[in-house]
Amino acid sequence: MNFTRRMFTAPMRALIRKELLEVWRDRRALGLALAFAILFPGLIAAMIMFALKSQGEKTFRVALIGGENVPVLEQQLSKGSFQLDSLSESDPASLLNNNYDAVVKIADGFADDYRNFRSPKVYLYVDGSNRFSGRGATHVQKNLGELQQLIVQQRLVARGVAVQLMAPWQVQVRDVSTPSSRSTWIFSSIPMLLIMTLFVGCLSSSIDTSAGERERMSLEVLLQQPVEAWQIVLGKVIAVSSISWFASILALTSLMVVFPFLPLAEMGIKHATTVWGAVTIALALLPLALLIAVLQILLALRSQSFKDAQTQLSILQFLPVTLLFILDMSAIELKGPLWQLVPLVAQQQWFKVLLVGDSISVAWVIAGSLVSLLLVVGCILGGARALQRESLLGAT
């Protein structure tokens, strides 16, 4: 009750109103938050279209040099997803630079060596720096390998040798992956981008409300008002987190609006998150927004100057997101439910589940959010003690 009365005193209400007005009047902070939130769905749409292009069947351009005397090779290479151009003579390197994915060159005297069983040469030229060239070379090798195997079998049969003697077993590769499983990396990146929105959204305002006010000497004036130090820190955290939380909700809303227009069905995803899932994500972002805001404010207060705070936070804000990216790419299996009590990691895993329309444990979401709120309380108390040190106010 005592805490509640302190929260709703007239000086505390005036402090929160003052902090909110300063944060939301900062056009630079608001513009940065809105720009990142608006660009968010465009980035996701571009990633999805890139994934579809990569998964789709590509027609490979292949140049065949000297194939006029070996029509069987030309016929074999014309099968599948190939656009075959038969040329008399040309430089393979220049052809690869001219949008060809692979170049097949038949060695001189191929027909004579083939008839005399001398294993004639077939040269395959590729550009190792082009990933499509590598895929095209793999398809060329596969087609030529099938033809080579067929010719070997025919020669064995002509000599009365059973084909099974040369092939004691057969290996058949069957890809059991689905378009949905091959596209999980896209939906895995959405939680990281949402979390990054919180960092970017409060970057400018957290620096201005701490290191900026200290340089303008307004922080010292604020400490002389009839409010306690923890109330000052709390008011700043509420104001700074409000703009970052708004940016994340705007990004999430714009993503929900864009989802129906994305070719999710072609990726094997029947439905994305529901309205209830989006609301759950928004509510789960609030404790994280408070935690990120208080951490950035404390780091900015510990810096030597306004520019120093800008440099430190600009670098450090990407560190947690990088760690989440490494955790996701390394495919570390999170065993047991205790990982849901770890901030950032818990939100990332919750959002990955909710974005594909699955459900999560409400009890663990509440528990994980309470852990984040407890960390916020601890940081606020630590920040209140820091504000009482004269050395902090005297930093330049």
TrEMBL record:
Segments forming domain ABC-2 type transporter transmembrane: 34-379
Subcellular locations according to the entry: Membrane
Keyword line: Membrane, Transmembrane, Transmembrane helix
The protein, known as: ABC transporter permease
Transmembrane segment boundaries: 185-207, 237-262, 274-301, 313-332, 362-384
Membrane-topology descriptor: Multi-pass membrane protein
One family name in Pfam for this protein: ABC2_membrane_3
GO MF, one example: ABC-type transporter activity
Annotated GO CC locations: membrane
Signal peptide span: none
